[in-house]
Amino acid sequence: MNRLVDEALVLSTVDYGEADRVVTLFTRERGRLSAFAAGARKSKRRFAGALEAGTHLKAHLVERRGDTFRLDGVDVVQSFHHLRDDLARIARLMYCLELIRELTRDHEPHVTLFDALKDYLRLLDAKQAGPTSLLLFELDALAQAGFMPNFSPCALCGQPTGERPRFDPEHGGVVCLSCAGRVPNGLPVSPQVVDALARLQAGAREPMAADLRARARELLNVFIAHHLGRKLKSVDFMEQVGAD
């Protein structure tokens, strides 16, 4: 058995038996992995609430046969407890964790993506993450996971998207009017939304108007659901509490 310590963010936990938990971690060096935490529901000394979703910690792991892990202990780096006082920020937290859990695969390192998630949670905890910052994080996460949507130019012909573009996740993003006949299920989208998303994707950091942001959120939800094969469960919670 190989003992190791890795920086990690808690993505989710599932109760197992009467006292144990299976913890899904997003680790910096080893990517996503699941670890068995014996006695986690009862032990005040070893885990002491450190397995809350989103907690940043150093995980003491034991690698066992078949790429399985045992979580022997944790050192909390940051609990992000401030963001748990606000439903909208909790909704964003749960959305980001679910998104990363679904975009990544077990034992595939994504160091840059790990750092991006950690940095976003720090901003969210400090009340420094404006609504547009979530879109920025999503676009970055999609790009790093190999699912980057195309907003400019046309995803089919490479020409400017023009005044009557359509959004089609099956073909990778936005298409121009000339190519619209090839995407019968494409969604009409305003040039203003396309331009705003293209600017964010290119590195712009200016806030987006609320109406444009809401439409952009709808497009990304459609794109993510198409590529994952289902809608993320946390999307409904985001909508219920008015988080965007």
User: Helicity range of the residues?
Assistant: 25-40%
For the terminal residues, how far apart are their CA atoms?
44 Å
Order of helices and strands: EEEEEHHHEEEHHH
* Structure classification: alpha+beta
Number of strands: 8
* Overall mean confidence score, pLDDT: 93
Strand order of the largest sheet: 1-2-3-5-4
Biggest sheet, in brief? 5 strands, mixed, barrel
Shape, per Cα inertia axes = elongated
Low-confidence stretches: none
Features:
23% strand, 244 residues, three-stranded antiparallel sheet, 8 strands, five-stranded mixed beta barrel, 6 helices
Protein architecture, described:
This protein is of the alpha+beta class and 244 residues long. Helix content is 34%, strand content 23%. A five-stranded mixed beta barrel has the order 1-2-3-5-4.
Give the SSE layout.
Elements: E1 2-16, E2 20-27, E3 31-37, E4 56-63, E5 69-78, H1 87-103, H2 111-125, H3 131-144, E6 166-168, E7 173-175, E8 187-188, H4 191-201, H5 210-228, H6 234-241
Parallel strand pairs: 3-5
Antiparallel strand pairs: 1-2, 1-4, 2-3, 4-5, 6-7, 6-8
